[in-house]
Structure formats: structure tokens, C-alpha cells
Amino acid sequence: MNIVMSGLEHSLAPISLRESLSFTPLQTGQMVEKICAFPKVFGCVLISTCNRTELYLSCEGQEDPGKLLCLAAGMEYTPYRDVFMTCAGEDAVRHLMEVAAGLRSRIFGEDQIISQVKDALSIARKVKGTDSVLETLFRSAISAGKEVRTKVRLNAVPTSAASMAVELLSRKLGDLTNKKALVIGNGEMGRLSATLLQRAGCDVLITLRTYRHGETIVPPGCGVVPYEERFSHMADRDLLISATTSPHFTVTVDELLALSSVPPLMVDLAIPRDIQPEVGNLPGVSLYNIDDLGSFLEDRTIPPKVEEILNAQTENFYRWLHYKDCLTSVGSLKEAIVDRILSTREMHADLSEEEIVALSVNKTVDLLVTGLAERITSENLEKCESKIRLHTTGVH
Description:
Layout lengths: L1 E8 L5 H4 L6 H12 L4 E8 L3 E8 L5 H9 L11 E4 L1 H11 L11 H15 L5 H20 L9 H13 L6 E5 L3 H12 L3 E6 L14 E4 L12 E4 L10 H5 L7 E4 L17 E4 L14 H44 L5 H19 L6 H15 L4
Parallel strand pairs: 5-6, 5-8, 6-7, 8-9, 9-10
Antiparallel strand pairs: 1-3, 1-4, 2-3
Helix pairs in contact: 2-5, 4-6, 5-6, 6-10, 7-8, 10-11
């Protein structure tokens, strides 16, 4: 069984390609089901965020996850051939560990990625797309990400795309106090954007598609407008952020041209994009998308403590994997030992039951120690002996 992954990262693939392979949670589950139906695939987990799409497989042979992803999505593989990053085995395991720790995000040490990795595993689990290998691998990576966040301070800069957008707007407009903002989208990214703008002193309106008690959360201090009325509230706004999961544009050129005035600064945090790219060509309008936000931290040196955490979780995973791989051999080994005891009994009928067991065990242990001579240590033997003696009284 092999572990392989292919991914589209913000550093390798332009937004025009990433948005075509960006999926909502519902679509992600559907893609996992399709990919798991392919021959030789035992399990898969698909991570889809605004900055990356990554497919992890446990499979037989050397499957190409990127090719399978395009096939399942009904996309041509050729445009993606040179921008997919593909790796296998220990490289794939290490990559996921770094992703969960925020080391491969646009923002070094990003906070949101850990929940996105957890969500990807949960979605795959719900559609029965995971197997024991990917379940254990992703749990190890999530544990690594949590430990990094609690024990290491990777940066002192904004740790989400929303905070980067607000930082960009602050640089462009100066003090955001009393500036008027409209946020389209009431998902996690939209709510975070609205909250950060409100804390910066903005007068914030956020759109809601529906408003039902208990089903939506309005950030404190923000006003609410129905999504369908978003254009009627744009005329007096200084800035606009759009962050929805809509497959269609939430803001188009034609709709803006019908207004008396439009927000001069717009930031599109969505993948696929919410704001029609041509909006940036309108007079007096500056449009930024998620690829324009850049990075606030050039130094991406991984601290020794982080390396220690990632290495420990990787070792834990491979220890489990090696044990799992050995289970079949252990069963065969037990059968061989039983056969030896039975054959010893036939060959030495003159010996007592205790003598037969002792002779069989002695020869079996000698063969095991000889066969594992290059790997066995006195420390491991002592641990084994301790466990055997500890459980001797419990044998029935």
C-alpha cells in the first residue's frame, strides 16, 4: 500500500487554475466518493481551501492523484500537469504534517488551516472515503498542528487571509476609523473580515442570504443587509470585501455600472472568485484578489522545536504503520510456533508436557533472535521480557 498526494498551491498554480479545482464541502464529499470508486484506491481525503487543493490517496501501485482528481472533476489534465506538486511515501507524510502546522500556507503559521484539515478528514469520513492509513495519518498531522500552535510562536503577524486583507486596506486608506465597509458573505471568512474591520473602527454591513434564529451568526457591532440588496448599499461604502462560496460572481461589471458610485477599494477573498476580474478596470476602482495579498513574513525558517514535533508525530505514524503491516506476518508466525510445538510433541513423546513447551519455546526464540539480529536490541528484549512477566499471572 502506498501513500501519495498531488496538490495545487498558491505558490505554484495561478488563481485561474486553482478556482477550477476548488470545491465546497458538499462537492468535496462528492469528489471523494468518485475517487474512491476508482480501481486500486483504498481511501482518499481531499483538502480544498482558498489557497490550496490537495488530494491524498492510499492506494495500490503508483497512482497519480492529480490525474484522478481532474478525471473525477471532469477537467482536462494537460493544463495542470506542470503545476501539480506530487509526492509519495515519507515526502507525502511530511508535506501533510507541514500543511497542518501552517508551514506551507501563504501566511507562515496560519491559524485556519488546522480546522480545514480536520474538516477535510471529517468530510471524507462521512462518505466512507477514508481507510485506517489515512485516518491515522491525518490524526497524527492534526495533533502535530495543534502541538505547534500551543508550544511555538511562529510569527507575530496577521494569521488569516481576512486579517491580511484588512491590513492591506489599512495601508491603502490609512486609519480605518469611521470608514464604511460592506462584507458580502456570512461564512467563516466573511464573519472574520467583518469582525476585524469593526475592531479597526469601520462602520460595517454584512450580507445574509437568510436570517433564521440560531442558524446565522452576526458579528457584534455589525449591521445586516439581505444579500439580494447588496448593490443598493454599495453607493456610500468606502470598501468592499467579498468572501462567499458561490460558484457565480457576486459582483459584476454590468451591475456596478448601474450604480451612481461604487466602493473604490475591493478585495475578493473567494475561490472561485466572487468579483468579476474586469471590475478592476473600472475608473477609480482598485480590485485585489487573494493572490495579491502577498506574504507578511519572508523568513520561513522552521524552528528546531517545530522540527522536533513534526518528527515525533511522523515517527508515531510510521510506528503504527509498521505494526499494522506486521499483523499478517504475526498471525503466520503464531501458526508456525504452534506447528513447532505440535511437531516437537510428536518427535519427543518421551518428554513431559513442560519439557516439550520449554524445548519448543527455546528453539523458537533462538530462531527469532537470529532472524532479527540486525534490528533487535537488548533494551527492546528487556521491555519484552518485562511485559511477558507482567502478564504471566493473567494467563488462563
